[in-house]
Amino acid sequence: MKDNGKNMRLREWLIAQIDSGKYAGLSWENQEKTMFRIPWKHAAKQDYKQDEDAALFKAWAVYKGKYREGKDRADPSTWKTRLRCALNKSTDFLEVPQRSQLDISEPYKVYQIQAEGGSPIVSPGPHAILLGSQPDMPLNVPASLRPQISSRPEVDADWKERVDSYGQTQHPVPLDTEKQDQRAPTDCDMRIKTESLPWPESRGSDCAPAHHLLPTTHLPMLRVTDFRLQVRLYYQGQQVQDVTTTTPDGCWILQGSAPVENERIYGPCTAEQVRFPPPKLTQVPSGIAEAMARLLPHLERGVLLWVAPDGVFTKRFCQGRVYWHGPLAQHQDKPNKLDREKTCKLLDTPIFLRELQQYLYAGGPTPRFEIDLCFGEEFPESSQNKAKKLITARVEPLFARTLLQSIKRSEPEVMAAVQMVRTGTEGN
């Protein structure tokens, strides 16, 4: 197949490159030619050779008209990011992490080629989760929970990984590379989809010990499809803003406008902008309003928050200090500061699901998913109430809240189903 036409999709173009044998390390993974290896060496490695290790990424940039030899500055990290983004947003490919090898001298990733159109395989039978020790004994999920989880993977959403100034890959950041469905998802929409959910094996006691719980490494195909965030802003404990994001790009919380330089690097970002309202327009005391007015100029550029398949992330851009508290916070009664221009993970989805499992089956505590931000003042502090802080924000990922609420509503039904499975197992 020739690759000189400009109308080929990534699927056709990439298959042509694999078959050409031009690129070292780019090869078929199986005889059926349904999976392939793609070289994935980091530019920081001592043995990195741009002409060889970045050749495929450069070829894609040239093909898409994003790089002109002799006119544009060579940027291997950006080339790699572009192809990675194209692979992840395409419905033709699905990464296979368990086959990838990223810690060897010649690292590579493995991708599976999906059926034409990327249509996910749908089980004709009822939704079921297979118990680890009894693969032939499915645990039927209650009807009220079926919209929340699925036993089948789904192709990833549109993602582009953020690259820092050293070309190192950090956590994925969603970008609006294609038009998304802007309607607010209903309770009937899929929230989480995974190939292997962390449900426990059949138990011999009422409380499942920790070793019965699947570790997070059993969740390689986790997919979150509800990327909305609810953001509430507070001025000294008084709510002044309540916004629910409607795009998968997350949101900025800021004074002023989002940093424009990011568009030059990553393309137009449609993350919603949640701005601090002028203190004088709120009902806070005049003295407090004056203090807030002095603080707000330091919050220009703000913080960016987004939901990725594996959790909730943030990145601080403003000069003013920002502190946070949440499920992954290092300290519970001492300040946790967000470092400037460094990605910080605020919630880990596999951990949340594991805690949800412990809550449902082992009587564990209710999983936490709320995230608090405090602008300009140290937080948390054991000696001061959050309501005393000048400016705070409460951020909640809706997929976590909706899933927890569904679990609570369905708890008796789920427990009855588990008991039936356990009884049937013990009787065999």
TrEMBL record:
PROSITE patterns attached to this UniProt entry: IRF_1, IRF_2
Stated name of the protein: IRF tryptophan pentad repeat domain-containing protein
Basic and acidic residues: bias regions: 176-186
GO molecular function annotations of the record: DNA-binding transcription factor activity, RNA polymerase II-specific; RNA polymerase II cis-regulatory region sequence-specific DNA binding
Organism name: Albula goreensis
Region called Disordered, residue ranges: 167-186
Localization (cell): Nucleus
This protein's record includes keyword Transcription: yes
Residue ranges of every copy of the IRF tryptophan pentad repeat domain listed in the record: 7-115
